[in-house]
Amino acid sequence: MDQRRNSAPDAARGVGDATGETGVNDSGVNDIGLPRSGGIGNQLRKIVTLSRDFERHVGAALTVNQTDLSAMEHLMVSGSLTPSELSRRLDISTAATTLVVDRLVTLGHAQRHPHASDRRKVVVVPAAASVAKAVDELMPVIGGVASLTQELSPEERVVIEAFLTRVVGVYESALAPDRALDAGGPSAA
């Protein structure tokens, strides 16, 4: 069978050649004009996709939606938060945050407690059992990545960390205009 005809269904499904590139022409860009990223770019895309899939897996294990899972993550990392702090971190309205907290409390993932120093306020506290369940779900990935990191030589760690720091910088640069608007910065005018 003709090679082009044989590979067309793969390209349509997003299956690439040995480098993982699909529909890449000789100019170094793909069919829609995106720059060729090679194997490293493909692996980074896979990590992003798998990360989203893993978040859905953890959310399903805890029977929460994405917003509720994000709220739980903030509570697990920061400990107790007031609903307004949680609202800011989630970038949703206080009314929407009330619904999130109501769902988490109903599912037993969080409790409301009086604020330690301001009796007019309440804080949302993550439930220890839910934190333990979330950690159990997260440990295969956290432990696996930690194990891989330990297998690297010090030189490899330096190179990989430097590269990932630069990738983070690319994302931060792309998000800078949005962050300036959110902060009411100069581009907000």
For the residues shown, what is the average pLDDT? 84
Shape: globular
Give the strand line-up of the largest sheet: 1-2
How many whole angstroms does the radius of gyration measure? 22 Å
The profile of the biggest β sheet is: 2 strands, antiparallel
End-to-end Cα distance, whole Å, is 60 Å
- Class by SSE composition: mainly alpha
In terms of DSSP E residues, the strand content is 5-15%
Helical residues, percent = 55-70%
Number of strands: 2
Low-confidence stretches: 1-25
Order of helices and strands: HHHHHEEHH
Structure write-up:
The protein is built from 7 helices and 2 strands. With 189 residues, the chain is mainly alpha-helical. Helix 3 packs across helix 5 and helix 4 crosses helix 5.
Summarize the topology.
Elements: H1 3-13, H2 38-62, H3 66-78, H4 83-90, H5 94-106, E1 110-114, E2 122-126, H6 128-151, H7 154-182
Antiparallel strand pairs: 1-2
Helix pairs in contact: 3-5, 4-5
Structure keywords:
two-stranded antiparallel ribbon; mainly alpha; 5% strand; globular; 189 residues
In short:
The chain is 65% helix and 5% strand. It is mainly α and 189 residues long.
